[in-house]
Amino acid sequence: MKVMLRLFRSDLVRRAIGSILAAYLRFVGRTTRFVVDPVDPYDTIAPLFPVITAMWHGEHLMVPLAHRPGDRTVSLVSRSADGEIEARLLSALGIRTIRGSGARGRKTAEKGGAGALRAMIRALVAGETVVLTADVPKVARHCGLGIVTLAKMSGRPIVPIAVIGARRIELNNWDRTRIPLPFGRGAMVYGEPISVAADADEAEMERARLRTEASLDAVHARAYALVDGR
Question: What percentage of the chain's residues is helix, strand, coil (to nearest 5)?
């Protein structure tokens, strides 16, 4: 067991796993028949670049397939062991990462949330689109104030996104992670941009949080309807 743990912690092994997973995700993308809703989302989104792309935990694995090769994109990834593999995967796909996540209680500093927020603001100022999950830590599908705070401080709009495949495996974990499978239908659904004023007060922040949560639910409901026929 100790040997396996040492191997898993090896930079070479993690890079190899990330490259294999990236190759698999590309294969899923090539063999999935995607419908995009709206048909030309970047007609609206591109003039607003850089934006803050919002996704749900557990529904995030296919989101990198929406990345356009020419776009400058950075994704927030946790400092966990799983996050280390995800960071390698994203790097193999040409997406830069910022390490850190939100937390509750005494673990805030350990998770690196404050530093990650500053790094994301710098990225947006530099013209990079930032992609992150909107959920409260360990509370899936419940939007926290973190992404709304980022929008307020950076002046950049939030764009909710759902990328769903009809063929998938659902894990029995806290965020019900969906693992995509190849050779099926897929849907990429984009929500309307959500802006947060620089002088937004507490009530306005809460309204923006609720709007982001509702929009994320809506784009996922639409995506599942498109791929599952519901």
Answer: 45, 25, 30
What contacts 132, CB < 8 A, 6 or more positions away?
52, 53, 54, 55, 75, 76, 120, 147, 150
The single-letter code of the amino acid at 179 is: I
Q: How many domains does the chain have?
A: 1
Residue 163: strand pairing partners: 188
- Provide the CATH number for the domain around residue 48: 3.40.1130.10
- Grouping H, G, I as helix, E, B as strand and the rest as coil, residue 162 is strand
- Type of residue numbered 135: D
Residues 189, 162 contacting (CB under 8 angstroms): yes
Q: Are 130 and 74 in contact (CB under 8 A)?
A: yes
Range of the domain at 78: 2-228
**Which pLDDT does position 1 carry in this prediction?**
47
pLDDT higher than threshold 50 for residue 177:
yes
